[in-house]
Amino acid sequence: MRLASTLLASVLLLSAALAHATASNKELEARANDIDSRLATVERANQSLVTMQQQIESARAELRTLRGQIEEARHELTLLQQQQRELYADLDRRLLLIENGAAPTTPAAADGTVPTEESIRAADESSLYGDSFAALKAGRYPDAVRGFQLYLTKYPDGPRADSATYWLGEANYVQKEYQTALVSYLGVLQKYPDSKRAADAQLKVGFCQYELKAFKNARATLGKVVSSYPGTEAARLATERLTRMDVEKR
User: pTM score, two decimals?
Assistant: First the structure.
């Protein structure tokens, strides 16, 4: 009888312990599931933060690129304004030559003075450059190319030879003839190193090298623009392009 009671008590204790263990296991499992859920929430939040950070970096890169494009557009506007001033100056010179009897359309001026060969040549040089420049300004780029090529053939040492060489490069650049444009820009630097076009020509050499995917050369050229022409618009545009290349990892 006593043995049966002892066995019964042992069974009851074992059942109670088993029930407690089962409850504890369920509690632990519930806690583990809760921790898993919280970890999953944290991971999702971290992933969202990573995605957000990537989007922010992408937006910053796009903003830098857009700023570079804006600066390029400003530079092109400055060039167009300069072209316009030069065109008006050329027109004034041509009108002055005509008024002074230098126009080759008549054998003598109204006062009977025969135009000299030099004055006729000057009028033709000015007219050819002005017409070519007008074609460039009007967007007739093939005409501009032909005009500046003719100018450089007839007047390789003319007073506007450096500008004609530069604008020939520009006429080809806007048509995406980068290799041909590169030859003209290099021509400005080699033949007319002291030209007022030198800084812009070197900048455009870098731009052509970039478009031709010669990125190492482009970096070297643009870096030289920054160091050789500090504080200029060309240097600022060169810096913008270098920053853009950093973003593009080029």
Answer: 0.56
